[in-house]
Amino acid sequence: MTDKQLIDLAVEASKNAYVPYSHFAVGAALECADGTVFTGCNVENAALGSTICAERTAACKAISEGHRDFVRIAVYGDGEGYCYPCGACRQFLAEFAPEMEVLSAKAGRYVSNKLSELMPYTFNF
What we know:
By secondary structure, this protein is α+β, with helices and mostly antiparallel strands. It is 28% helix and 26% strand.
């Protein structure tokens, strides 16, 4: 799968976001080592701590289906800047794949980083 195809899946996933508070839809597409892709969107809640980000939605879907071998994730938000995973999502993903590739996208453009560049000091045991 190309970077563009993965990002396109993230863009499509963002269309399902439930964002009545921030009005900022985010989509993610998480690719596993076997080529399986899981998508997710952000789902907000009036109790802000109950909100879940697109990246963790996609990861939870993958994990619940027995996949833990993440190789890259595309994250898209329709804003002016590139859409990077938040700190909680970075830590969550690092639990499974600290060296995975992260494609942070905005309309028509993206940048690529290793997760370890975005979260250099993960919490681990």
